[in-house]
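Page 37, top half.
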Amino acid sequence: MCKPKYKRVMLKLSGEALAADKGYGIDFDVTNKIAQEIKALIDMGVEVGAVVGAGNIWRGRSGEGMDRTTADYMGMLATCINALALQDSLENIGVNTRVQTAIEMREVAEPFIRRRAMRHLEKNRVVIFGAGTGNPYFSTDTAAALRAAEIEADVILLAKKVDGVYDKDPHKYSDATKFNKLTYIEVLEKGLQVMDSTATSLCMDNNIPILVFGLDNPENIRKAILGEEIGTLVCKE
């Protein structure tokens, strides 16, 4: 078996990816396939943290006319639904998993405690971080960057519905050009939709590489870990 390129990773999954072609809700065929790929990483000795978005259920900006803070908190709660669904898929195949949330809900998950999260990872447990940062006006991208810095992850694996970073939306423009590698500064200056600017800046300040790839094939997670050339790498230089 090939040696993994990274020892500890932060896997960021978009909520939309969990919905697959349904467009809304959770496609458990998808969560089960993702779980199998995460199990393969654990079997290789990779320590895995994960953050899941909530675009398949609710976005903070979905609540037109609502108070933005209230809408954002609803989005945070929606991430916890996705986190529990992924936890269930993982535990069904024997992967020890913990969900830690930034908003306390002790009946269903642990509160986020950095040292406890680190200990879980060292024991080969997957740690899924729910409820974003616990603050409105911050995306789950920022939560992934923050938690990655806190757990000292080697890389953020950013799994999306597109297979990398393009100069414009490839779903709308047939002449969109894909980037193989970018610097943090290029992402910020070009206004590319990799992660939001807060998350990108946090990764830049802490020198955390971001590997953006498509989740249309869940095996891409394993390919990314083994260092195969997929997607777009965002790094210092």
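Page 37, bottom half:
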Amino acid sequence: MMYLLILVISVYVFLMIFFWMGFKKVPKSNGNSSDEKLSFSIVVPFRNEAESLPNLLKSIEKLRYPIENFGVILVDDESEDGFRGASYGFRVLTVENERKSSSPKKDAIETAIQHSQFDWIITTDADCVVPENWLLDLNNYIQNTNKEMVCGPVFFKNNSGFLFDFQQIEMISLQAATIGSFDFNLAFMCNGANFAYSKKLYKQLNGFDGNNEIASGDDVFLLQKAVKDFPDEVGFLLKQDFQVTTNSAESWTELFQHRIRWAGKSKAYSSGFGKFVALTVFLANLAFIISLLLLLFGFFEMIILLILKIIADVLLANQTARFYKIKMKNTLLMAFVYPFFSSAVALYSLFGKYEWKGRTFKS
């Protein structure tokens, strides 16, 4: 048992070092401006989010980008809250979702692409707020790198309390692993709230074919297909102010449901590296719990394993937090709580169900 715990934690620590090194090697966006402007369709699937959408649309209205080079496509997925769009200083098209698979969100994006008149698709969520240079930075990055798929960071809007601190550190850690995998052409994870790709690449990948039976995953499955077939055309835009912010969960129950949805996707990863990471993280969190229990029963040598995992987690997360200038609070408490939470999510996702926007899905 002891040697197995040592092996699992050691592999995990080396994996965190791998991501830490990868983060350092990902080139930071130089911000060089381009006179040529690409055209983007901003796709926003929504369901019963009348309270959130106005804030997103107001942030889009503040974008420093020619209004003739972008438009918003809102895809209504059977909302019941009576959302009515207002008048904005840019083009907004609202369409009904055309359902044809087990995934409402993938259907919504496909519906939007059919209505899009521009060459690029950029997806975000209804409860998000985008930075004013969002499209400008994206345009410059694409023009300078010739990438056909671009991922960006997503963090939570400022809030208070341990639940928020827990989610923010978790998101920082996920972003760290995401960024750290890009330099090695092993990217396996991204966030659809800040995700752009050309329609040309989307068609080359046959869209979401192959994973339409899974309710979520419009982002990670498309990314993994692109990394497999066109690795040099995928990039991460690493720039301090290129970040979309979203709402954090308001309760532990809501957060648990969210994470079950995320965990359920890992079973269908096409990326072997992605599956290895998911399994390693799960086993390392279990190893942490077992080591902690053994420590309580007098096996004091287990404290070394606990400290190693905590240091690896904090160093990786702190690297990302410093770059994006985000404060981490309750870090030590998070280090002890997270393995229990994560393990519970992983185990439940193997056979449980989750709720998402008023619907129930099998994990």
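Margin note: The chain is about 50% helix and 15% strand.
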